[in-house]
Amino acid sequence: MGVDYREQYFPNEIVKMIIVMLCTLALLTFLAVLPVFLEHLGIEGLAHEQQPADPASTPPHIRPEWYFLAVYQYLKLMPSEVLGVSGKALGILTQMVVVGLLFLFPFWSPLRSAQVNRYEWPAGLVTLLIHGLAFTIPAGVLLWVRSWMETPYCDIIHPMYVWPVLWIGGYVLAGLVMRRAGFDDAFRWLLLLNTTLILIGLQALAFLVVLGQGLSWAISPIAAYSIGLALFLATTLVILWLLRRRIAGTDQGLRVKLMIAITTEGLALFLGLTIWAMWPPGGLFAGGPHDETRRFLFAVAVMAFAVIVFYAFVLTERRTVLRTLSPEERDQLP
């Protein structure tokens, strides 16, 4: 009898790997900011004694390593300020959409667990509304309070630190309130609907921010953002249609197709931003095949090879899992 690797590794092992990754990232971030934090407390000598950095200006010759180029290019697309939040902080906050999607997507399309009752969708929407209010009201109040505070005290309630905590707190509050009201599936619906919103948020980042802003450098801004808006609305309708099928429990094969599509989209977004950041300043072949062009073409070739290897490993792993299943179990695969 074959072993059901689907139940074993999806989403259980995926969630474990995500938790390990986030804990490692949190530890590295803590170690990075520790010297500066200690200096603010009067413990000097740990940070480098150099000219203070200007957060509002980045020298043009400074560029991060290749694995941060996509983040670097994305931050450059942000406006200077939106609703009292600086563009760079907004860029970091919106990138949490991808992290949230990575963590929640396994629950959006589970194999056998977290099945919801299709007739409870009004209660699910009420739970999502409570979650939204529990986040937006405190976030708005803290933004107003922060506008009256002086530097550096206003950084204590910076949205980059406060908003993720408020989002998680609102999630727990909404779920507990609705469960006390007799809605036992409150957390399941929150997982489902929040992940749907994050999926839609990823489309907004991809088509409105990245594609729209990128095309506006080559064509008129109205035409660029119109193209981005049309693609965003089209993908949003597809996601809502998939949500309807997901709630109805029909065509379970869509969950795997959606995972493949979202993974490919995220990878294309990362590679596109990376290539954009690496593009030679003087043009690709301006003045002949200079060193910038050679380095750019070599980097693109390496990334293309890495993508081919990645999908080859995925297909190989799928074939390995299929060989462990019985014919009856293979017939149940989407």
Written overview of the protein:
The longest helix is centred in the N-terminal third of the chain and has 36 residues, at 5-40. Helices cover 72% and strands 1% of the residues. It has helices at residues 5-40, 69-77, 87-108, 121-147, 159-180, 186-215, 221-248, 254-278, 291-324, 327-332, and strands at 81-82, 85-86. Helix 2 packs across helix 3, helix 3 runs parallel beside helix 5 and helix 6 runs antiparallel to helix 7. It has three domains: 1-46; 73-278, no CATH class; 282-334. The chain is globular, with a radius of gyration of 23 Å. The chain has ten helices and two strands. The protein has 334 residues and is mostly helical. Strands 1-2 form a two-stranded antiparallel sheet. A hairpin with a 2-residue loop joins strand 1 (81-82) and strand 2. It starts with a helix and ends with a helix.
Keywords:
334 residues; 3 domains; two-stranded antiparallel sheet
Secondary structure elements and pairings:
Blueprint: H1 5-40, H2 69-77, E1 81-82, E2 85-86, H3 87-108, H4 121-147, H5 159-180, H6 186-215, H7 221-248, H8 254-278, H9 291-324, H10 327-332
Antiparallel strand pairs: 1-2
Helix pairs in contact: 1-3, 2-3, 2-8, 3-5, 3-6, 4-5, 4-6, 6-7, 6-8
